[in-house]
## 1
Amino acid sequence: MPPPKDVVKIAIQMMGAIPQLIELNQTKPLAAVVKEVCDVWNLGNAEHYALQYVDGQQTYITESNRAEIKNGSILRLTTSPDQEAERLHNGIRSHNLDVKADSLKKLANLSRDITFAQEFINRNGLKQLFLIVEEGNDTGEILAHTLKAFMELMEHDFVSWETLSPAFIKKVVRYVNTGGMDASIQQLSLSILENMVPSSRHLFELVKREVTLDRLLTHLQVTNQQLQLKAMALLIALLLNASDAERRVRSPRNIIHASEPMGDEMAHYLYVLQSITLNLLERRMRTPMDPYSQEQRELLQFLRHSAFESESEASAGTVSAERRRSVCVTEFRKLGFQNHSNPAQDLHRAPPGLLALDNMVYFSRHCPSAYSRFVLENSSRDDKHECPFARSSIQLTLALCEILHVGEPCECSETAQAFYLMFFGQDHFFQELFCICIQLQNKTWKEMRATQEDFDKVLQVVREQITRTLSLKPTSLELFKTRVNALNYSEILRLRQTERMHQEETLAVPVLELRERLKPELLELIRQQRLLRLCEGTLFRKISSRRRQDKLWYCRLSPNHKVLHYGDVEQGVQSPPIESLPEKST
């Protein structure tokens, strides 16, 4: 008989005691449950204890979140939030540095829990953290734990950021501006400033006045990626909260401070920010796939399973190893890998290296319907007309790296201002851009009715579609997507023709006269070449009423250029003699 819905079976641990396996009745008051657990272990003062998750963020169990407890959960009997808050509040005021450091470390961990945070803040604990920072007597580990605890407590929005004292803010700014400061302290300080900026106009003005753009750019060019990301987040927060007039200022010393209304240098710094961010991708771009890496091989298998889930599962336990290997080879071919038996070889070239694999996996995970449609749609086409997903992804990733100058040093000239506002509104800009462009490539492939021989030509058109759209400076990826999809192959041809005509109009008179004089000769040469090609003939696939293409026929023009000869031919025949073609057409 199944247990009642209000009962869950859980385990409860306590240091130095044998765990208890109990059936937790969710209708019973939590205080009564804790009392029963304490009684089993002969613990008095049950009100001083609480239950807490062992795994994850080790959240305290309360009446409001107890419904989240599942069958099989493991809990811990521990000190109650109010008792722990009191103990740590005393500990961080200790003159014993070891006790103080341990208390701050535990405080930083426990402050993620909203129940504990409320108890600690109610004891005026934030004021004690302010004093540690303002006095400036503690550095290193103690200071890092203090800032971490402060950040975790502020995340709960119990206290306004506007309550911060000028002395506290000045210390945090100094940690950011001082060279040689511990990286963990600088990361936390940058996070604090980032959270201050949008909270009020006063704090925004204070941060933009005290933190120089040059200093932030210095943080962006270090090797510590976490420090780079925190500096980037602060700079973006300042840009997002600035007015239009402030974004157009010139002064490079203060981010938006100023008196000289000119936008060139701000545009240049945005370009530098974008370049440094994109260059975080450089390591993946320059790392070839390791055929012995289990993790990387699993990603390849993930791509295969995501596209051909039912086929892969059907072959899993019912056929021989040889048959399964054959299925894998077939599915990797359908995915568009050129090396079907060892697809890792396709990713051995760097660039684009592992960045191409990252993009393919991101597309399959975040756009699963589009991914499946791309692969299955093309794998059902004739081999010559399928748009190979893997090959397209690898070459498109390389093209995007070249277009966005990934891995190239930031230009210092004032002309290096190819920044895109849409870049600053996405957590995974490059991957999201890839998702749009890989679908664009499939769309353009179909518009061009391309075959495998046209692959480079299609990629060239896609590259032109992307660069033309980027030149319009779309402000969001959605706008980029709309515009790039509107720029279809027909429109590209029209634009090319218009530009060609414009170029012809600007030619000098002697050049135009020479072209007119040579035109008859050139047209005759083109005519002769076309006739020669018709005389050589071409092999065609014969489409039956069932749309099958298993028969071939050949057509060629007679030497006197008056009759077309055609007829069925066998597979493998390259250029049959004209006498073997029985059918004629004048």
## 2
Amino acid sequence: MQVAIYFFICVDLSLALFEEPALFPLPFLATSIAEVLCLIAFFGRLVHFAKVTPQMVFWKDTKNICIMVTIALTLIDLIIYGSLEAVNIHSVRWSRALRPVFLINFPESRQIRRTFRSIRNTLPDILYVFLLFMFSVLIFSLMALKLLGDRGLRTVEGLPYFTNILEIAFELYVLVTTANSPDVMMPAYNFNWWYSLYFITYIIINTYIFMSVFLAVVYNNYRKHLKNEIRKLAYLKRHKMMEAFNILKVKVGSEFVVMEARWRRLARTVMPHISSPHLELLLRISDEGQKGYVDKMNFLRLADLLNIQVVTMNIKRHPLEEWMPWVYQSSASLLIQRMVRHRIFVWVYDIIILINAIFIALDEKNPFISYAEWLFLSLYIIEILLKLYTYEPRAYFGKKQFWNWFDMLIIVAALVATVANTTIQSASKYNSQQVLDIVLILRILRLLRVIVSIQRFRLIVTTLINIGPTILTFGGLILVVYYVFAIIGMEAFHGKVRFFDPNFTTPDALVCGNPALKDSAFARDRYCKNNFNDLASSFIVLMELTVVNQWHILADGFALVTHQAAKLYFISFHVVVVILIVNIFIAFILEAFFMAYSLEKSEVETAIERKIQELGVGIQEEEMHDGKLVDNMDAKDSGFSGDDGDKQRKALKGLYFRIASKKYRTVDALLQQMFESEIAPEDEGPPLDEILNFSPSDIYPKVPNFENSA
């Protein structure tokens, strides 16, 4: 059902590519039929949801109301637009801007809704800062009008300088983004250098102070509301676990407990695919004294136990050790294995990669450089073969061995591409530039392997992997905002600016197909391809506006071909995306990195690791990074060194456990762990109604002093 809904959402959003103004034009009948089919699918999903939801709950849910209203409005717009098109009257498809409503409001998109909630919660506080900021801009605009308006100054284009209050306000707003600095200052600065103090003061106050305050307010509110949401989830989880305990409990002596058999059935029901050794390990943790039952305290952390990824490791012998033990265990073979497992082996290949980087930067046409590439490729192939000889192949290419797979794929692809390129060049005079480009890219990608060898690099990459899913959520948020602004932009500006081939020198080509752009910076800089004539071009323009460099030239250009009020569109986009969404994204990145650098293992993880070691079936995470683990891991993560390592490797047989690496923890789990560490194990939490009505202000003391603030 989820796949079907996402498919129809993608189809619905992609219709803008085929509707006028279209990148790939299709008749209105075809796109309208596709849209009606999507609306039927959305309505069907809504009916299905209503069937399995209590009626009162369904009708109180604003998401369902939003979807129904959007479906109705879209159908009305389709009928009106189709009727007017039938009599050759062009109208506006305003309902297209509502399409992201489906992406946001279906239950499957809860993460995007959560991000929108963060924005909504941040708005009240940021609004006051924004009003104060705009007041500052207007005060400086009035000062500029009085100081410079009557001086008879002119811009580079020969236009009057700072004579219109609205133009001044716009130029000063742009100056906050530094996009028109120092151009906007130069006429006044050329007239008298004292005027530069006015602009310096303005930049310090509005660019450096106010923009920093924006980030501080956004970050503070984001963190406050996020912590409130996580706190609510943590207490709700504990409340549910209490309810489950009360249903399953029986009295043994003076205390209520859950019997072992019932606990097993519950764990199996919740996680049907859990392995028997893993389940037995969790039971040993929950029933420390082997009494045959689980007490209340241990039962309440069952959800946490099941959430923590425990990796079951099956230590296997190398196939060559089984087939040819006399060869694999010979002194020469053991020497090779010890060399490959040694840290120096990794360092040698890191140096080879860095030398390879120098050769990549040199001239490819030099025959010596070309032959050297074959040498480096041969060395990398030898490295892979030596590792496969030393480490158990199935473990070496395990699911979680990303860098091993990366090494192999890059080297094999580079080998194939290099051979293909050499074959093409030797077969004829034709040189395939595309194949050569692929070879060069693959060679450069090999340099990424250096990241694994440096601990700090690994930590940064691990954090980026952790926040990957949430970055995708922000990507969904950006897609929604871009889509709405792109649709509005296409309706307002399509056809106003046209792109001509750079070789065209006709008068139309020089002014982007619109005489209003004559002598403008927009036409002079040949920005003609920055237009809203289709969805793809609109997205590129919006990306340029997000970067903010030269965004005022784009705004001025579209204002010239329509109306000066068009600048409000570009200012609105800057406020929503750059000031609000980008700052929330920065706040999230800051929070994620703070957690990655500072968060220790949770109490439950520590309990699991302690029990693993007590049972004698443990492999420590620290040992993996120090290079002391078994021979089924990459040398960068594991591998014994010396005779002691060989003895330990021979002693390990059967199943072993370890806690999964931090890189497999989600940011949500880390946030929840951060708050739950503050809740005492015996704290059952407040009543359900109070939990549901938690407010961010409840987190902080009403009358702060040193003790309660600490």
## 3
Amino acid sequence: MWMWKGSLPLLLLAAAVAAAAEPASTLEGPSRPVTVPLREDRGHAVDLPDTDPRVQRRVTGWAPEQIAVALSAAPTSAWVSWITGDFQMGGAVKPLDPGTVGSVVRYGLAADSLAREATGEALVYSQLYPFEGLQNYTSGIIHHVRILGLEPGTKYYYQCGDPAIPGAMSAVHAFRTMPDVGPRSYPGRIAVVGDLGLTYNTTSTVEHMASNQPDLVLLLGDVSYANLYLTNGTGTDCYSCSFAKSTPIHETYQPRWDYWGRYMEPVTSSTPMMVVEGNHEIEQQIGNKTFAAYSARFAFPSMESESFSPFYYSFDAGGIHFIMLAAYADYSKSGEQYRWLEKDLAKVDRSVTPWLVAGWHAPWYSTYKAHYREAECMRVAMEELLYSYGLDIVFTGHVHAYERSNRVFNYTLDPCGAVHISVGDGGNREKMATTHADDPGRCPEPLSTPDDFMGGFCAFNFTSGPAAGSFCWDRQPDYSAYRESSFGHGILEVKNETHALWKWHRNQDLYQGAVGDEIYIVREPERCLLKSSIAAYF
């Protein structure tokens, strides 16, 4: 008979349980591929209607709405964005004058002492269609103000709007700047999500994400899904299935952007969010203009990081250098994005920012049938360059499921390759990816028609390895560590110069702290030689 004396056995038992529950580590080498069986409780992928109070306009006059904070390239500055005035829809729309309302942010270290002031710029964008019967759109006035001279790791209170107009200033909000750039300071939690949309699944994802109290959010494209709608507000979960043969151009319903900004404001007004474009942001209109909403609505550190483009840019957060790349802009080795990437990587000092993390929309290492090897041309163009500089982690979206790779380079397990994590399961209304390219009889045919925005066609049969001579593996590839068709979000916690804890949270787990996938991603700078002459910190 066991005799429990005092609390020592209980402490030992607790220690044993804690040890058993210690997450796996990439130091242990490649993990055996895992596929989680499909579950029925995957959520409710139905869009929030325009009658939902969370998406309706709750301000009047020139009062600000859709308030959002974004990072600059360094923690000493940040962007505040908002919209004043309402959008217009109709056959003939007249844009508002951006000069009607000022762009002012008052801020300080206390809610009752907003003694400092910054000003910025305002703009209006339109989505126009040269076809009879289609509804045109013009936005409210969009404001972007960059605040300078901030202290790293500091909570700031702010109001935005126009103090010269009665009722045109917002309530007081607050956000915290990123920690100082250096190898021993890191944001506490970084939330990572893709393909968010505005469904009831979205609300579950955002609620779970907010409960983890992130310091920063990365949104990896496909934001509002306004392009799943006609201009009359009729929506679908598959535009090409429902409307492609009956419309002269791929329409959008731009008010969905405003609905999304209103719903997200409680998060975006207090937690910096960094966004990169996805295919649903293309939104072609008159004159073949694209990406109008995306480029106008968000603030990017493009000037600060010298990319001068809303599609790719970089920024520092503590000891992490983030690079956000464009899967839908020219990524060829002769293009501007590639030349900028070479310059940006060459400037990274790994003794100051040991971690190098990248994000873009379309994954390179997804094993799902949907979008299988779709971004192969981008991988062929850029992977070797990123590998030579010791890229640690890649975050992507696009495929509506979750997948994490082992360390991989050129489809081969490599201890110095990056860990690729696809989180394209944020809550959108399109069909979830449930079929794998390696399922029997499910290997897709190689694409014969290049995508206009993804570039040419580069995916051919493998020439070496277990899948040599085939377009797909006949089993879950060795480089695929974990995959699951569920909605959710991820949290990255960088602990120090070499260790980062990655957690993926499913929406359907009732306990919001529950973890679906968890692993320590460990850098080995002394093992992995870098092309850069700037030393890696270890």
## 4
Amino acid sequence: MATHTYTYKQFSCFNKTFTNTEPGPPSDVLHAFHSFSSAGATSMSADNLLGFLTDHQREPQCTSDDSLRIIQSLKGDHKTDDGLTLDDFFHFLLRDDLNAPIKSEVHHDMNAPLSHYFIFTGHNSYLIGNQLTSDCSDVPIIDALVRGVRVIELDLWPNSTKDDVEVFHGRCKLIPTSILTLTTPVSLRQCLWSIREHAFVTSKYPVIITFEDHLTPDLQAVVAEMVTEIFGELLYYPETDLLSEFPSPESLKGRILISTKPPIEYLDSKSCDEEDKKPKSTDKGSQSPDVTNKVETDDKDVEDLNESDEKSYKESAPKYKRLITIHAGKSKGDFQEDLKVAGKVKRLSLSESKLEKASESFAPDIVRFTQKNILRVYPKGTRITSSNYKPHIAWTHGAQMVAFNMQGHGKSLWFMQGMFKANGGCGYVKKPDFLVEKGPNNEVFDPKRTLPVNKTLKVKVYLGTGWSSDFSLTDFDSHSPPDFYVKIDIAGVPADRAKKKTKTIKNNWFPVWEEEFEFPLSVPDLALLRIQVKEENRTEKDDFAGQTCLPVTELKSGFRSVPLYDEKGEKYKSVKLLMRFQFK
């Protein structure tokens, strides 16, 4: 166990030296090492290590090749016969590349319809900063795709000469609708090329582009040509006009989809009489495309079109509309009508505040809608600093696209990043069965109902390391080594939410806590374990020292190395915790 000395200046008058010793294996680790090693042996053989992996770590899929690979990683190719000493074994447990806390591969069933998945979704994906004055760029789009985001939102507007398309945030609800924001535009062509080049760097599963369309018919035709030209064979669109069921992520691997409102079809609407425009009571919820567009469109109404518009729509609508896989629209306030499950699937968008209001009266209806259709939830207009909302109310109601501002940071975004660490970080997380299946009497999951405890998660925090490597001597305290403590929270359904905290370890870069906590969980499938390390500060706000958020259902049992991340979600090079997870 290495010993380190640190010298700090006290009151600008004299120096004080602190001695910190790197911790050795905790007693639980010692016990496990001796329990799985051969009697009287001072090392753990490959067979012994395999027994530890399968029995203690609950990884029955491990083989002798896996245990040999671990020993080779720690000791080199030529020393595998020596096995692992206690120090080697402890070092192995601290290696998050060899002993990660969650599964790293895609392991969910990827053959269900898109509506059966939570999908990693961005909001105003082109903005670098706030919603009013920040620059627009393809850089945040690239960053989002590299992080695994699968839904990119682009706001489409005519350029100043009305002959091309730009991407920028056009209006803010805090100011009159006639006043535009001050965000600087980026060309749509540049955004599309960047999406093509980076779409599948992190995940091979489909990228969905949602267009907020503020274009004339002629420019919609320009977009159709641009999308087809740039994406080529990567672009997926269905053979039929409207789908009765969405395709699966597996079938769409390596493909790019478009989701937006379909263009107004003027001629169809003029040729239909008023009765034809209404839903047919005998037709299982289907309705005229013209009525759908009339309800969903934020632009001009059909009746407002002049003769030139009629011709433009007649020529451009088919080109644009055929590229749309996921037909979309916004709620107009009649939630019961919005949530009717028709024969054809669609996407509905609600602001976080509208969802919260709707969930008070229509929770089961929302869940039923999301079993076949897609619900997108987006931040309310007052979040001009690009802050985010709590995502769990949307997830518990089955919302697939919980759109977040990815350029910010904070607890809500940590939850989002934590959720999509699941399933190998591919950007698609299979929803729990209770959100996609109906009960024997056609009933659906009720998010308001309190359920009995399903399982209990036991979390033990042993120690932390790496801060002395990743931080400077005075990053936390200018007069002494840091005073670290750990906060452990459960985010999920209301009954499962809980907060715990360890004691504070004073003046030590290598804190040892050895504290255990229990979390009873009624809906573990929607629970996230948030871990945050802070440095106690008596005179000011406690300093941030690392965080991570992990989906409970993905946690691996046993001793685990838990790497920590900074406030923006970037992984620290060295900072990690040694923890143990158990379920009962």
